[in-house]
């Protein structure tokens, strides 16, 4: 099997995906990386054997020796870069979120249909073992028909990952309820079997906004911008982004198109870092305790009772295929993308679902900034949705 020739736009925080995709002799190899930062280009050369680097994305998109493009750049660039690559006939992998506006997402989807070029969105949590186990139990009917979903996201390292660079600015993200929340909103939709139609939210910048320790404009992040066990408590953070205008805590209520009611909470100054999903059906409920190997999904569905810690069934979170990020999901999503580039067809990720996650996060952000008013989430053009549901064939 001839290796697919992959190019990468952006070699920053998600550069691990490029390294996972580089499999010379096994179906794919990264041939060129484009990044405006010389340090990122040097790192790419050090980490990917035989790769070529350029400073202009157009040199990649217009390259006839490229089969597919991985877009790993900051969120606000996704729509322009994805549409340019699709028009050039390159299969496209867009890291989540698909874009930072609903209009940008719809522009990408329309361009993919108009050009007939394959589009894939990197919602890798659909390949995380804990998510797949919950999805399996729901589909099997272990808790009956899903009626409500509650999600709590404890972002223990939020001060490091989201308040020291472009993530902290609305102009680049819309807000963290979209940028970070797109993962969980997509999973929530997947578990519930529907998409958000109405959304209402409250949120605030409660901790990092008052921290005066900011970098000067144009000053790069410090070498110790992230530590596993340091930078605690949150007010001890230093060298934050010069501009911080996104919320660090938010809570959202949702009504889905199938009647399911859902809630999502996100906090960037908790001491722990994990996600908790509670899915309640008309015949039981399930909940995850931990979201990596060592955690478990527990089900209560045999009888009524008072409080009891012991569930009626418990399923351990399986070991990943390797120790890469997101519980081993990254290699699996790259596997699916490469298969999709070669063969097309349906995938566990979905451009439609990616758009609807952005639409829910965008509407929720608008709601919280308007004092909690209910926002209607715009539906996607049914003909456009049908195109992608058929597998882009």
Automatic annotation (TrEMBL):
Name of the protein: Gfo/Idh/MocA family oxidoreductase
Domain GFO/IDH/MocA-like oxidoreductase: 131-287
Coiled coil: none
Residue ranges annotated for the Gfo/Idh/MocA-like oxidoreductase N-terminal domain, each copy included: 7-123
InterPro entries: Gfo/Idh/MocA-like_OxRdtase_N, Gfo/Idh/MocA_oxidoreduct, GFO_IDH_MocA-like_dom, NAD(P)-bd_dom_sf
Pfam families: GFO_IDH_MocA (PF01408), GFO_IDH_MocA_C3 (PF22725)
Family matches, as SUPFAM superfamilies: Glyceraldehyde-3-phosphate dehydrogenase-like, C-terminal domain, NAD(P)-binding Rossmann-fold domains
Native source organism of the sequence: Streptomyces spinosisporus
């Amino acid at each position: 099997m001839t290796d697919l020739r992959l190019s990468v736009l952006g070699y920053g925080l998600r550069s691990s995906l490029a390294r996972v995709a580089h499999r010379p002799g096994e179906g794919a190899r990264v041939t060129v990386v484009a990044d405006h930062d010389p340090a990122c280009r040097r790192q790419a050369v050090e980490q990917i054997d035989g790769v070529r680097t350029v400073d202009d994305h157009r040199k990649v998109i217009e390259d006839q020796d490229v089969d597919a493009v991985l877009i790993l750049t900051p969120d606000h660039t996704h729509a322009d870069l994805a549409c340019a690559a699709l028009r050039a006939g390159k299969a496209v992998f867009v890291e989540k979120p698909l874009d930072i506006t609903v209009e940008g997402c719809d522009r990408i989807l329309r361009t993919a249909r108009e050009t007939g070029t394959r589009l894939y969105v990197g919602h890798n949590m659909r390949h995380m073992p804990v998510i797949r186990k919950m999805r399996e139990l729901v589909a099997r009917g272990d808790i009956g028909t899903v009626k409500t979903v509650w999600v709590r996201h404890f972002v223990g390292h939020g001060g490091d990952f989201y308040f020291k660079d472009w993530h902290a600015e609305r102009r680049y993200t819309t807000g963290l309820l979209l940028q970070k929340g797109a993962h969980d909103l997509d999973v929530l939709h997947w578990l519930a079997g529907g998409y958000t139609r109405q959304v209402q939210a409250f949120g605030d910048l409660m901790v990092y906004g008052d921290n005066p320790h900011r970098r000067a404009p144009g000053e790069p992040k410090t070498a110790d911008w992230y530590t596993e066990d340091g930078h605690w408590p949150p007010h001890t953070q230093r060298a934050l982004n010069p501009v911080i205008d996104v919320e660090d805590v938010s809570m959202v209520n949702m009504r889905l198109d199938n009647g399911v009611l859902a809630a999502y909470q996100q906090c960037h100054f908790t001491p722990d870092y994990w996600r908790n999903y509670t899915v309640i059906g008309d015949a039981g409920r399930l909940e995850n305790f931990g979201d990596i190997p060592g955690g478990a999904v527990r089900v209560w569905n045999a009888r009524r009772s008072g409080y009891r810690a012991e569930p009626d069934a418990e399923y351990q979170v399986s070991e990943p295929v390797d120790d890469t990020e997101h519980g081993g999901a990254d290699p699996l999503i790259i596997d699916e993308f490469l298969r999709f580039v070669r063969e097309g067809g349906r995938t566990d990720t979905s451009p439609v679902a990616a758009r609807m996650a952005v639409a829910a996060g965008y509407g929720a952000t608008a709601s919280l900034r308007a004092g909690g008013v209910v926002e209607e989430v715009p539906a996607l053009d049914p003909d456009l949705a049908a195109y992608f549901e058929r597998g882009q064939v």
